[in-house]
Every structure is written in structure tokens, then in C-alpha cells.
Design a protein that fits this description.
Layout (H helix, E strand, L loop, with lengths): L6 H12 L3 E8 L2 E7 L3 E10 L26 E8 L2 H4 L5 H11 L59 H14 L11 H8 L10 H20 L30 H12 L3 H18 L6 H24 L5 H19 L7 H6 L11 H13 L20 H32 L3 H10 L4 H13 L3 H14 L2 H5 L14 H11 L3 H13 L1 H4 L5 H18 L1 H17 L11 H9 L3 H10 L3 H10 L3 H8 L15 H18 L1 H14 L4 H7 L4
Antiparallel strand pairs: 1-2, 2-3, 3-4
Helix pairs in contact: 1-3, 4-15, 4-18, 5-9, 6-7, 6-8, 7-8, 7-9, 8-9, 8-10, 10-12, 12-13, 13-14, 14-15, 15-16, 16-18, 18-19, 19-21, 21-22, 21-23, 24-25, 25-26, 26-27, 27-28, 27-29
Amino acid sequence: MSQLFGSRVFERGESYWRDGRVEGVTQIAPGIFHGEVRGGSLYDVTIRVHGRGDVQSDATVVDLASLSPSAGLSTADWTIQSCSCTCPSAVSGHYCKHCAAVLLAIVHGASDEQAHHPDGAVPSGREMGAGGTVSDSSSALSASPARMPTMTPTTMPTDDPGPIPHDTYQTVRSYCSSWYGDHGPLLVWDPRVIDECEAMRRMSFPCLSLQQAGRMTESAVQSYLDFRDDDDEWDDDRWDDDEFDESDWPDGDGVTAAFTGANDVLDNALATDDYEAAMRNAVAVMNIADKSLEYLDSSGDADECIEQLVWKIRLLMEKATRDADIDAAVLKAMADMLVDAVHDRIQVSWSASRDGMAAALLSLSSNPRVRHIADQALSNLEHDADLPIISPFASTSADSTVTDSTAVDSVAELEEESQQWRSTLCALRHDDLVLAGEFDRAERYELEHIEDGAMATFAVSRAVLADDFGRVRELAMRHMRAVPETSVWRASETLPETTFPYGWITVLVASAQRLADRAELEHLYRRIIAHGGKTIPWYDDATLEDGRACVDGLRKLVGGRQWRERTLPAIIEECETRDGENRICENRIYEYLLQSEHLDEQTLEYCSRVPGAIDRLYDSVAASQPVRATALLLEPYAGDRAFVGTVSRAEYRKVADRLRRAIPFMGAAWVAAYARSLSAKYPRRVNLKAALKGLM
């Protein structure tokens, strides 16, 4: 055992043990021992062991053949997996004197409690590794539908209208069939909870007291913060020179060390049959852990740790629900604790544990004996859903000043958080009804909450699978009227963009195709083209492909004569006049339309009013209008202020590239003359002259 520690550290640990500073050693879970050591403060030490057959790659292996049978580690088949302590030295990654003292107490049988559980197997399910790491957290199940088929651009169609396509209808129906299943997928519930609980055997280790649980959690957080913030304030009473060196900082921020105490408490909660006390400890631990996020810089890593802790609360609730001997009153008390904890977090926008703790209630949904408890708990949460969410960092000081824009942004963010919570509640209730087998009630719930994207997707999928596309259109329109326009077009959280590139408009396109409603289909295609710039702020190859398919599909649908005489002029007018104003938005779908129809005059007008458009469209329009197109391309350099002030080399390369593009249309001589005049206009710009050298 002494091999784990420096000689001085081990000697001081042995001194602590002999002086009686180890105030208690208890086995709190399979393979997990907890001890308290009195030093400058009361420190909590956790020792994790496992059998040699379970040795992990990151475990520190020590031969424990000499351990006393009275310590509960009675065979030679044990190794030490990790030692953790809430003192600052241990937080830095070192085995400290407090760990040595507790190990000595275990070896010499300091606690008779351990003899009750000689089996030190590591608990099944999600394991804590060395340094308090946890296996990957759960993730929502999602389908991977195929991409929406697109049509190949064609030449000008015949004068007669073309057949109504069915590509979008078939894609939407295929997605709904694979996504919906028998009764719709579960949005929040994770079946791995059941799998892990089935692998866990029933255990009856003593439950930590609420005071111990709180102290262990707070001490770990505080020790991490002390080590992070005060690493240059050395105090011989707190630090041993041979225990820590400033160069020994671990890679990364080590934020998981702040949650080792919480991990230990939750492992104990999973190893006891005092479920009510275990849940009380778990909620208290999560309250501390949530509040600590305000002080932890690495919020991403910290949030991941919180999610992994919440997973253990979900395991605890599932384990209790599956215990046939548990009293329903105990489950009611546990559910009430979770509801109170979630209620306290409803108004706090940064609570990382809120949704996961609420999801733990779903363990009660499929058990007929306690189904009513889940129903009542979710009803209580739904009752509080409309409470306003406030920022935990909002200042109430009279001296605090906030700009109008900041205040508006803050209000918008809080409203978005409130809407996300209401959507989470819808998902929770729907999962609850499906798990309980109340499918008729689930269907009614979807219709009552059609404004929610997920519920609308459920309701529409039912109608799609029933091949009732009149109903599909009706439900989609009801949802679209209830949400902002941006949600209509960008519904990626509920509708996959690969299958529904235009959000809920795609559903209407599928309905029009199935119902053979040619007029409605034309209207929707025109709407997609005209709204392309407003609804798609970024463009990738897939988005452009969908947009081009829309243009080509409309061209085929209406036929050549109607396309030229009515449809095309109407689209141009609509794209050039938005919201009653004579302005043009950047619209890549419209750009493709202009190019494919060779509308050079409209293209030049568009490029003159949309910054950056000429760079994309120059080659297509310069063939017929070289002078006007080149004038637009080089317009930024027409004045005498183009290269005044700080100018990057990229700007010099850009003007050279633009001039090279003009050579096929304006001729090399014209480009050379322009380059010389531009260089002469800015004689001190050496980098400009160097960039244009090959052109002059």
C-alpha cells in the first residue's frame, strides 16, 4: 500500500491514523468505502476497490493479500481503483495523507460495519472510474431518414402542364412510417434505465446521513475551487511540499473533481434499500451541484457531469419502482421530492438537472400499482408551467444599468427557455401516456397541444399513416397558425431538415401532391422560391439542391406557356417586392431561377441591390452584359477610398482575382489598363502593386 504514496505522505497518514483522526470508515456501496478524517477541517475520503477480474486500464493495482479479513477485504483478489479526498492536495490528482489514513483504518479493521458486506464487487450499471469520471450519458433516440429526393434540372418544358409529382409525398410518408412505429416513439424515456436496473442486485448498505451527503458534496466543490483559484497561496498547514508541485496541474480543467463527492453520495443511494432517505440525499446533492455551476468556469464539462449525476437519480427511481416490497407511500414521497426539486428549477434558466429529474418520474408510469403517482406528479408540474422564468444572475441593485437591447435580448432568451420547458413537459406527458398504455388519451393530448412541434408531428404522422391527407393539411395549418413564422420554416428540432427542407411547408407540399391539388402545389412552390432569402440564412449544397428542385418542379408543373406568361413574372415581382417594400433579400433559390432562365436584366438589378451577389453570378451575366457586369464586380474600387486605412492582404488578392475573372469578357488589355490605374491611385500600397503585378 505504501507504494501508492510518497514516503513523507504515508508517514503523515500513518500518524493521523494512530492519533485517532479517522472518525469513521463505512462501506457505502459495493467496493466503495467512505471515511472521515479530522485535519485542518473534516475531510471526506472515498476508496474504490474492485476484483482483479474487473481491473480497468486506469486503475492503480496493489496486492491486497495482506489485508485483514475483519476489514471486509478478505481475499487476495482485490485492487485499489481510486482514492479521493476533499482536501486541496487530492483535488490536484495526488493521493494524500488522509487517503493513507483511511486505507490503514480499512486494513486494520477500523470499522466493523464492513464485515457485513465482504463482497466488494463494483456495482452494476454506470461506474465511476478513477478521478470521478462517468460513462457516457444517455442520448435521445433519433431516426436517420433518407434525404428528400430532388429532381434534375431540365430544359424548358412543353406548353402543356406536366404531371403532378409524388416525390415529397412518398418521402414524408416513408419517414412517418419509420419514425412513428406502433404508437409513436418515446421522446424522453430511455429504456437503458431498465436494462441497467435489471443488472443491479438488491443491496442494503447503510444510507449516508443528509449532513454527510451535503458535506461531501460541498467539500469536493469547495476544494476544487480553492485549488483552482488559490494555487499560488501556499500554506504549510494545508499543503505538503512533497505532495504537490505547481507543474503537476492535470491536463484540462479537471472540473469533474468538483463532483466526486456528489458521485459518491449517489453511488451510496443506489446501494441502499432506504429509498426515501436515498432520494432525499440525491435531491440535496443536485441542489448543491446545480448552484456550483455559477462558480465553475468550464460550464460545458460541468453540465456533462450534472447530466451523468442525474442519470443515477433516474436509476434510483427505477430501482425503487421495481422493488415489489416497497410501500406506495415511499414512492409518493420520492415523487414529491422530485416535483419540489423541479419546481424550484422552473424559474432558474441555468438548471442543468431539471429535465432529467423530471424524466425520473416516468419510471412510475408503466407500473399500474403506482401509475396515479406519476399522473399527479406531472399534473403538478403542468400547473406550474406558465410561471415566469427569471434569470439567476438578474441584478436588483439600484445602481445596475442595462441597455435597452440587452434587456430585450434577455427577455427573448427567457421566453425561449420558458417555451422549451413547456415543450419538455409535453414530451414528458406524452411518454407517460404511452408507457401507461393510454393511447386514446395520448391522441387527444396531441390535438390539445397542437402548437407544440413534437405533438404536431405525432398528430400529422397519425393522419399520414391513415392516408388522410385532408386531415394532414388541416393539422399542419393549425400548427402553423399557432407558432411564429420562423418556426414554420425552421423546425429542425421536430422535423429533420434532410426530409423536411422547408419545415412544415414540406408537409403541405406532400398533402397537395397526394390530393392532386395543382393550384395549391403551385402556390407552395412559389412561396418556397420567394421566401428562400428570408427563411434560409445559410446555404450549403443540400439546401441549394432542394431550392433548385423546387424551381424545376414548378417549371414542369405549370407548363411552358403558363410559366412564361404568368408564373415567372409573378415570381419575379414577388421576389423583388417584400413586405410591401421595393427591396430584394439575398435569395439563392431566386438566383438559380435567374440563371436558369437567362434573365440578365433582372440579374444585374438583383446584383446591384444584394451585396456579394455579383461574385456568384458574374460569369453567367457577363457573357451578354460584360460592361455592366464588370462595373458591378469592380464597384468597390471605383472611388478613391477603397484601400485607405488598414487593409488585409486578402483584400489585395481579392481585387486581383476579380480582375482575372474579367479577362475573358473585357480582354487582357482592358484589365491591364485598369490594374495600372488602380496601382497608380494608391502608389504607397506595395502589397496592392505586388498582387496586381501579373496583370499589368
